[in-house]
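Subject: Sanity check before I submit

Could someone independently write out the structure tokens for this chain? I want to compare against mine line by line before I put it in a report. The sequence has 191 residues.
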Amino acid sequence: MYANLKRPPRTAVEWIADAVRAVAILTVVVSTFTLPATDTAVLSMALPAVMLSRMLGLRSGLDLVTCVTVFVAAGSNVIDLYRSWTGWDLVVHAACTGVLAAVALVVLHDTGVLAPTGRRRTPIVVATVAGLALSAVWEMVEWFGYRFLTDSIFVTYDDTIGDMAAGGIGALVVGILASRFRLTRGDRATL
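---
Independent answer below. Compare away.
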């Protein structure tokens, strides 16, 4: 992991992904002094994902998509796009859960939890289950924020179920793609 983190970018896409990472870090630092603490916390939750995608050695395109998607998801909350644009919430839940399911597949593989099986359905099932689990955790975080921090967080039963369904669909799509394409760069053994 450390070798991937310190490896210099080689392609334009890798440079752009690193630029998005830098903007994400700078935005969180600036938000600490300019935005309410809840907004800074939301933006901060994107940082582990944008850094982990680099550390895992994801293919450059997937790395960039992960960084942009996660940062757009957090930023959409801060500038209130989820309430302003009908359907944006579901689009972002599908996309963000999908890229996080791809990250989960690589983490599970790299840690030995998920061994290569040679079966195409393994990443489909595992990505979908991981995506649904991540969606459930996210919805619990939203509920906790609404219940104990601020009532400005939009939480309803229909919203929660819709978000989880969209996340599951996004993860399923990524699982199908992962069953056909490599998620990481280089010669590493993958799913």
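---
OP: Matches mine. For the report I'm noting this point. DSSP finds nine helices and no strands in the chain.
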